[in-house]
């Protein structure tokens, strides 16, 4: 942690933004953004060994990650978070690469979140509605309506938009408490849906699938960096953001571990689906107990929780091009603040437009859909780049600004997180057995990520050249 007498950098914060986020808002933001119902169902697909892997991921990634975010925020507070940390540590160009990669990988991921929300919502209507799961018109109208509602509320100001994530955070807690309570009651009455023994909790290290799964489960903890990105809009960021991060870390860990256990014990093996796993569990428990309404209520709260998560990420991610626009490394218009509502409205509109195009591409004919899936593959490596820079930035900032006796300890925090992230980058470039054209896959993932970064850097150098002329 940062000592009182350590040198703390001053970072500019856009003064036109309104400071509306308190401790409660930041806590709900963290929990809603980090805890993923999809990650939970994905973990349950792997079986009982996933519980052991959650513990390992907590020790070697979650704890170092949380400590890194807290210290970097303390040393360099301000709107933009990891973009500012990297820019100060390594220079403008590297800061741009981090901001560009972070924004791009998130907007490519948003269409999958939108489809998850529209699918889970169908469980509210039971089996009669589930026939719409593959209906493009339903998914399109529902998802785009949700997207632009969130964009509009954000333009009207964070004091309004924050209630999306706040309601989502409360709904998430209700969902999890309902799942845990009903799950325990179900287990006491009917017992486990699968065989449980000590040996079942040990992962098979000879199975290649364990490694990519572990990378996936590790980065289910990612998202704590989102609150510092909104630092300029917090009422008391130096006090409230660290508190919210620590509280959220404990709560998220508890929820992931306990809810995964309930899913595993109430659903038979090989029956957990990624997009609907928690909704499946509610439906199974309600059906077995003779209360089908349980599935409807659970799906309703799940939908609100997913909407809250989507809203949190849409809000936070839009601030990245906003602060880069202020630095004029992207078009200056992206850094504009609405004169009445105090929101980064241009950045929000541009982000909403890009996500709309990507979402429509994911629904259209096979050629366009394949192009979107290629872009999704490309974004895998982009997802990890900001985290590599973030852990490296901790070491650089500590050596630049901390007393000599306090520098070495940064390695104990940064090294585990950096190595896990680097390991995940390597795994993401290794094709699985199911991939037919392995060389093409590697070229697509690695070369595509490099191409997207080069495209961004092309814009960066063009903007910088224009600045130098002035």
What topology does this entry show?
Elements: H1 23-34, H2 37-45, H3 49-75, H4 82-90, H5 92-121, H6 136-155, H7 158-190, H8 210-218, H9 226-229, H10 237-266, H11 277-289, H12 293-326, H13 345-363, H14 366-401, H15 410-428, H16 438-469
Helix pairs in contact: 1-7, 1-10, 1-12, 2-10, 3-10, 3-14, 3-15, 4-5, 4-14, 5-6, 5-12, 5-13, 5-14, 5-16, 6-7, 6-12, 6-13, 7-10, 7-11, 7-12, 8-15, 11-12, 12-13, 13-14, 14-15, 14-16
Task: Give your account of this protein's structure.
Helices cover 71% and strands 0% of the residues. The chain has 470 residues and is mainly α. The chain has a single domain, classed as Up-down Bundle (Amino acid/polyamine transporter I), CATH 1.20.1740. The longest helix has 36 residues, at 366-401.
Features:
single chain, 470 residues, mainly alpha, Amino acid/polyamine transporter I, 0% strand
Structural class: mainly alpha
How much helix, percentage-wise, in residues? over 70%
Corresponding CATH architecture: Up-down Bundle
Task: Give the number of DSSP strands.
Answer: 0
CATH class wording = Mainly Alpha
Major β-sheet profile: none
Low-confidence segments: 1-5, 7-13
How widely separated are the two ends? Answer: 41 Å
Q: What integer value in Å does the Rg equal?
A: 22 Å
- SSE ordering: HHHHHHHHHHHHHHHH
The number of helical segments is: 16
- What is the CATH H-level superfamily? Amino acid/polyamine transporter I
Tell me, rounded to a whole number, the average pLDDT: 84
Tally the structural domains.
1
**Percent range for β-strand residues:** under 5%
CATH topology: Amino acid/polyamine transporter I
Give the overall shape: globular
């Amino acid at each position: 942690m940062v000592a009182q007498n350590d040198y703390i950098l001053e970072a500019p914060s856009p003064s036109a933004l309104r400071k509306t986020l308190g401790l409660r808002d930041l806590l709900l933001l963290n929990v809603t953004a980090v805890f993923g119902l999809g990650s939970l169902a994905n973990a349950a697909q792997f079986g009982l060994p996933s519980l052991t892997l959650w513990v390992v991921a907590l020790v070697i990634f979650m704890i170092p990650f949380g400590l890194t975010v807290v210290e970097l925020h303390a040393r360099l507070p301000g709107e933009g978070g990891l973009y500012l940390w990297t820019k100060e540590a390594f220079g403008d160009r590297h800061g741009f690469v981090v901001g560009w990669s972070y924004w791009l990988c998130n907007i490519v991921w948003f269409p999958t979140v939108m489809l998850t929300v529209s699918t889970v919502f169908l469980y509210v209507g039971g089996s009669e509605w589930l026939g719409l799961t593959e209906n493009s018109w339903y998914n399109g109208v529902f998802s785009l309506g949700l997207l632009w509602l969130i964009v509009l509320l954000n333009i009207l100001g964070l004091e309004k938009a924050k209630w999306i994530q706040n309601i989502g955070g409360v709904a998430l807690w209700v969902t999890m408490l309902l799942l845990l309570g009903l799950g325990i009651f179900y287990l006491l009455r009917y017992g486990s849906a699968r065989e449980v023994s000590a040996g079942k909790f040990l992962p098979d290290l000879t199975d290649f699938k364990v490694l990519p799964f572990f990378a996936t489960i590790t980065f289910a903890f990612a998202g704590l960096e989102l609150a510092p990105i909104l630092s300029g809009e917090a009422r008391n960021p130096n006090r409230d953001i660290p508190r919210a991060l620590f509280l959220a870390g404990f709560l998220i860990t508890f929820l992931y571990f306990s809810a995964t256990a309930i899913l595993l014990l109430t659903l038979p093996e090989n029956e957990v689906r990624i997009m609907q796993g928690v909704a499946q569990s509610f439906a199974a428990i309600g059906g077995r107990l003779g209360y089908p309404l349980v599935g409807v209520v659970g799906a309703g709260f799940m939908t609100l929780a997913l909407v809250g998560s989507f809203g949190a990420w849409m809000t936070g991610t839009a601030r990245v091009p906003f602060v880069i626009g202020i630095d004029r490394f992207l078009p200056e218009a992206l850094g504009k603040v609405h004169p009445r509502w105090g929101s980064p409205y241009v950045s929000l509109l541009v982000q909403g437009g890009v996500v709309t195009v990507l979402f429509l591409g994911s629904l259209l004919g096979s050629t366009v859909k394949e192009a979107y899936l290629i872009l999704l593959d490309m974004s895998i490596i982009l997802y990890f780049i900001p985290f590599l820079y973030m852990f490296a930035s901790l070491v650089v900032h500590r050596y630049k600004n901390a007393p000599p006796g306090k520098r070495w300890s940064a390695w104990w925090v940064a090294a585990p997180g950096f190595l896990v992230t680097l390991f995940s980058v390597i795994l993401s470039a290794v094709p699985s057995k199911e991939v037919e054209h392995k060389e093409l896959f590697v070229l697509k993932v690695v070369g595509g990520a490099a191409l997207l970064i080069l495209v961004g850097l092309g814009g960066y150098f063009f903007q910088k050249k224009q600045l130098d002329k002035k």
